[in-house]
């Protein structure tokens, strides 16, 4: 199989390991994609520029390169053709459908977009009273978010909340801003523009927007938001870490992600996920729910 600039030479299946052998023509760039699992790539011949998220490295053969799960990456041949091996551990032996197994969309992906979050952090610091003004998401002892502090930025109008039927609050509605500070809203707009420019999106509909804080040693417990109208309608979810470190992680079955401050991550909240803060400092995140109409 081949397309202009990319030629698949062979599929190798040996002892639970798969290797795709490809030739990339000079100047051709393999478009950005992400894999479900960490894997190894081997530059056998030539010179290649490899982008992973917002980092770029130039490699000369022979070179062994680690590609992390969920990180969008691309490969471009420079100064001649490249021979490349993409190596995965898998029991699949079906060459025709192997990409459906290995190149699905992971539940969380670093989009490669980085933003300055200092203005948002200053706003939070200057308006500390906003924490836990609304506790409907966290006050129940059974809530997966019971150890978390929240600032509600945008959601269903609080006047629609009925304590005798709290689940109805997440049914179909038009979201409103709880925070109307224009400078803060401008920062949200900047993030939206960066996402739209990166992915060639022309129209976005905002749903809920939340700032959430997990105190040191606490967590968001394993849960799924599937079944909620809001979660399923505003299916394009983004997480922007405002305070984070390498002892904090966002987790799915088989995937644990460290989220650096200012990087924008897309994520799926319709499958089981949980967040751990095993550090001695808080983890603060901005979560934006959208619906893209490209």
Structure description:
It is a single chain. The strands form 3 sheets. Strands 1, 2, 3, 4, 5, 6, 7 and 8 form an 8-stranded antiparallel β-sheet that branches. Strands 9-17-14-19-12-10-11 form a 7-stranded antiparallel β-sheet. It is elongated and about 65 Å long. The protein is mainly β and 294 residues long. The two termini are 30 Å apart. The relative contact order is 0.14. The mean pLDDT is 91. The chain has helices at residues 98-102, 118-126, 182-199, 229-233; strands at residues 2-3, 6-14, 17-24, 29-33, 39-52, 55-60, 63-67, 73-89, 108-114, 149-156, 175-177, 204-214, 219-223, 236-243, 248-252, 255-257, 263-267, 273-277, 283-292. The protein has 2 domains: 2-106, Jelly Rolls; 111-292, Jelly Rolls (Sandwich), CATH 2.60.120.10.
SSE layout:
Elements: E1 2-3, E2 6-14, E3 17-24, E4 29-33, E5 39-52, E6 55-60, E7 63-67, E8 73-89, H1 98-102, E9 108-114, H2 118-126, E10 149-156, E11 175-177, H3 182-199, E12 204-214, E13 219-223, H4 229-233, E14 236-243, E15 248-252, E16 255-257, E17 263-267, E18 273-277, E19 283-292
Antiparallel strand pairs: 1-2, 2-3, 3-8, 4-8, 5-6, 5-7, 5-8, 9-17, 10-11, 10-12, 12-19, 13-18, 14-17, 14-19, 15-16, 15-18
Main beta sheet: strand number and arrangement? 8 strands, antiparallel
CATH class term of the largest domain: Mainly Beta
- Element order, helices and strands? EEEEEEEEHEHEEHEEHEEEEEE
What is the global morphology?
Answer: elongated
Contiguous helical run count: 4
Write down the overall mean pLDDT. 91
Helix fraction, binned, reads 10-25%
Number of domains: 2
């Amino acid at each position: 199989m081949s397309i202009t600039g990319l030629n698949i030479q062979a599929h190798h299946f040996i002892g639970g390991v798969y290797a795709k052998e490809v030739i990339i023509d000079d100047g051709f760039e393999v478009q950005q994609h992400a894999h479900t699992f960490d894997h190894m790539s081997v530059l056998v011949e030539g010179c290649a520029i490899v982008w992973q998220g917002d980092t770029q490295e130039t490699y000369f053969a022979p070179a062994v390169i680690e590609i992390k799960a969920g990180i969008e990456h691309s490969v471009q041949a420079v100064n001649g053709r490249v021979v490349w091996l993409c190596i995965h551990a898998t029991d699949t032996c079906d060459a025709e459908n192997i990409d459906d197994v290995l190149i699905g969309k992971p539940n969380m992906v670093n989009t490669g977009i980085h933003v300055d979050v200092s203005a948002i952090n200053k706003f939070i610091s200057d308006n500390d009273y906003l924490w836990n003004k609304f506790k409907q998401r966290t006050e129940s002892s059974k809530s997966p978010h019971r150890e978390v502090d929240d600032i509600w930025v945008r959601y269903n109008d609080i006047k629609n909340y009925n304590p005798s039927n709290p689940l109805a609050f997440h049914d179909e509605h038009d979201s409103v801003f709880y925070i109307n500070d224009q400078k803060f809203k401008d920062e949200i707009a900047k993030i939206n523009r960066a996402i739209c420019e990166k992915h060639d999106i022309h129209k976005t509909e905002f749903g809920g927007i939340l700032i959430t804080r997990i105190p040191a040693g606490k967590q968001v417990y394993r849960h799924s938001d599937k079944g909620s109208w809001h979660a399923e309608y505003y299916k394009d979810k983004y997480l922007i870490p405002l305070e984070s470190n390498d002892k904090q992680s966002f987790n799915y079955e088989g995937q644990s992600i460290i989220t650096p401050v200012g990087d924008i991550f897309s994520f799926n909240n319709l499958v089981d996920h949980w967040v751990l803060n095993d550090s001695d400092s808080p983890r603060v995140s901005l979560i934006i729910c959208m619906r893209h109409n490209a």
